[in-house]
Amino acid sequence: MDLRLTFLGGVGTVTGSSYLLEAAGKRVLLDCGLFQGFKQLRLRNWEKFPVAPAGIDAIVLSHAHLDHSGRIPLLVKQGFRGRVYATDATRDLCAILLPDSAHLQEKDADFANRHGFSKHKPALPLYTLEDAEHSLGSFRAEPFEKNFRVADIFDVRFHFAGHILGAAIVEIYCGATSLVFTGDLGRPNDCMLPDPARIAQADYLLVESTYGDRLHDTREAEDALAEVINRTAARGGSVLIPSFAVGRAQIVIHRLWRLKAASRIPNLPIYLDSPMAIDAGTVFRGHPEDHKLSPTEVRDAFAVARYLRTPEESKSLNSDAAPKIIISASGMATGGRVLHHLERLAPDPRNTILFVGFQAGGTRGAAMVDGAETIKIHGRYVPVKAEVDDIHMLSAHADANEIMAWLKGFVRPPKKTFIVHGEPLAADSLRHRIEDELRWTTVVPACKDAFELT
Q1: The domain that contains 322 carries what CATH number?
Q2: Which of 373, 394, 415 is at the close of a domain?
Q3: Alpha-carbon gap, residue 155 to 379, rounded angstroms
Q4: Are 194 and 87 in contact (CB under 8 A)?
Q5: Residues 6 or more apart from 223 whose CB is under 8 A from it?
Q6: One domain, residues 321 and 176
Q7: Alpha-carbon dihedral of residues 257, 262, 267, 270, nearest 10 degrees?
Q8: How far apart, in whole angstroms, are the C-alpha atoms of residue 344 and residue 328?
Q9: Into how many domains does the chain fold?
Q10: Domain ranges, residue 103
Q11: Within a 13 Å sphere around the CA of 79, how many CA atoms are in the beta-carbon half?
Q12: Burial track 151-166 (b if 16+ CB lie within 10 A, e otherwise)
């Protein structure tokens, strides 16, 4: 059976993950992610989808993050009527993430229209809350480590990927041909999530390369976190942690709980200012089979922070000058409540803006990590005089050595390894390592590239 693979996103960049498999007249998407970061990437979200959505039979989703799931409501809006296959936890997290994404888009469009700083008249959301909620009816949950059939000809199996709750490595058979897609590969020996499953073989492999050109700091994450908090508290400042609401916020809270329990940081109040992160913690509690923590550890760790749900509670923090720790979304400071905290805290040198995850090019987070002296928020420029720090070891992505160690679990090389989900330098660096160390055939595809898999 002839099998064709086309790269529709998630190549040359870490956003817009989307790969099309075609065989015997059937079409299946691996992921359907939102493009984020640079404006020229974000504009791709508004382009006509390369394949008619009504002609796609199914989506197989690796995990819930928006760069992998965020265009599903748009595809449904445009005519997709198939199933979205995902793990149980991924489905539950998408029920939080997708409506929230729509809500933020509607809110940003409304704000732009009221204040007149959009070039579009009127500014419109990519999709609405109603679109997002409607798309959730397309989801079908499948368990880990059990085969299921998609579009009558694809046999699919989810394996643990680590990374975030419910994240899967996707293994697909079409006849005798096998393909494995790593999704976002997590890190080994994580304190909360299972190690990425070992895969013995595949005819074709799609491997992510987010950190393909670098290694994570070898310091213990809690040591680095304690150092930043103690240094900031000593000068009377607050720590603002822009955090991905799903996955990273729960990791940060767990680490802060451990530090407080060991009296390694001052007894500063901790605030989780993200309704989506609060809801994601509830999903975490509801899937004990997908993580390592005991019910007692989950209860105690998630009780370390005060949860802020309403806008009024969030705004009240800005009138409180006392030192504190605030965890708020979004993780790259592209939107959400964290922007209001940045407006308040970034101009004060006593404070620290602490990033705890990958910052894609073109985002406010990347600009601040690179030393930007001002950032634009809601149409005006805000000075950045606070300390800006970045703790890589809290990343949920495997680094270059960890990716290579995972690849060495294969008992025979794939016929071809496609390097995806990485910025150009990261993807090409990983290509060199795989070719030099493993002697595998590799390709760094470009958007719209297509390959016949035999």
Answers
A1: 3.40.50.10890
A2: 394
A3: 49
A4: no
A5: none
A6: no
A7: -10
A8: 13
A9: 2
A10: 3-214+396-453
A11: 8
A12: bebbebbbbbbbbbbb
- The answer to whether 340 touches 286, Cβ cutoff 8 Å, is no
Q: Which two tokens stand for residue 291?
A: 């993580």
As given in the structure block, the two tokens for residue 193 are: 């999530």
Chain position carrying tokens 């709750």:
165
Whose tokens are 């498999």? That residue is 21
Q: Are residues 298 and 346 in the same domain?
A: yes
Whether residues 246 and 390 fall in one domain: yes
Q: Could you say which of 355, 370, 394 is where a domain stops?
A: 394
**pLDDT per residue of the chain (454 residues) written in tens, 0 to 9:** 689 999 999 999 999 999 999 999 999 999 999 998 788 898 899 999 999 999 999 999 999 999 999 999 999 999 999 999 999 999 999 999 999 899 888 887 777 777 666 566 787 899 999 999 999 999 999 999 999 999 999 999 999 999 999 999 999 999 999 999 999 999 999 889 999 999 999 999 999 999 999 998 888 889 999 999 999 999 999 999 999 888 889 999 999 999 999 999 999 999 999 998 999 999 999 999 999 999 999 999 999 999 999 999 998 888 888 999 999 988 899 888 999 999 999 999 999 999 998 888 888 999 999 999 999 998 899 999 999 999 878 888 999 999 999 999 999 999 999 999 999 999 999 999 999 999 999 999 999 999 999 8
The structure tokens 């009780």 sit at 303
**The CATH number of the domain where 89 resides is what?**
3.60.15.10
In whole angstroms, give the CA distance from residue 353 to residue 346: 7
Which phi and psi angles does 93 have, rounded to 5°? -70, -35
> Residue 180's closest CA among 9, 405, 13, 21?
21
Distance between CA 72 and CA 84 in Å, rounded?
A: 9
Q: Among all chains, which residue has been given the structure tokens 């050595």? A: 401
Q: Are residues 206 and 299 in the same domain?
A: no
Same domain for 36 and 74, yes or no, is yes
448: left (phi over 0), alpha (psi -120 to 50) or beta: left
Residues 62 and 99 in one domain: yes
User: What is the rounded distance in angstroms from the CA atom of residue 324 to the CA atom of residue 264?
Assistant: 15
Q: How far apart are CA 443 and CA 454, in angstroms?
A: 16
Q: Are residues 38 and 58 in the same domain?
A: yes
